[in-house]
Design goal:
It is built from no helices and eight strands. The chain has about 100 residues and is mainly beta. An eight-stranded antiparallel β-barrel has the order 1-2-3-4-5-6-7-8. The protein is globular. The chain starts with 10 loop residues before the first strand and ends with a strand.
Length: about 100
């Protein structure tokens, strides 16, 4: 996957699911996420209590986002001009996020 597919778009949350054990805090349905070429991201609603941070692609399939003090590594499942899906496995839970851009 290429960074160019992520940046200069407004991504709106479509679905936000969790399977397994743990507490799931859903993102607000109006949450929008933007990635910039300078390696920063920002959101219109808090993601884990923050609305901005840094990001990078660690390899073709891993999106690394700094959220607060935590570096979170997401496995990219799909990335097109209009669809972004990624997954996070944490402890006994799997979180899957789907975003759409116009």
């Amino acid at each position: 996957y290429k960074a160019e597919s992520l940046v200069d778009k407004v991504w709106t949350i479509k679905s936000d699911e969790m399977s397994g054990l743990g507490v799931h805090t859903s993102l607000a349905p109006t949450t929008e996420l933007q990635f910039s070429l300078d390696g920063t991201w920002k959101s219109t609603q808090p993601i884990r209590e923050v609305t901005q941070g840094t990001w990078k692609l660690a390899n073709e399939r891993t999106l690394v986002m700094l959220i607060g003090d935590e570096e979170v590594r997401y496995l990219i499942l799909q990335l097109t001009d209009t669809d972004l899906q990624y997954r996070l496995k944490k402890n006994a839970a799997t979180y899957t996020y789907a975003w759409a851009s116009n």
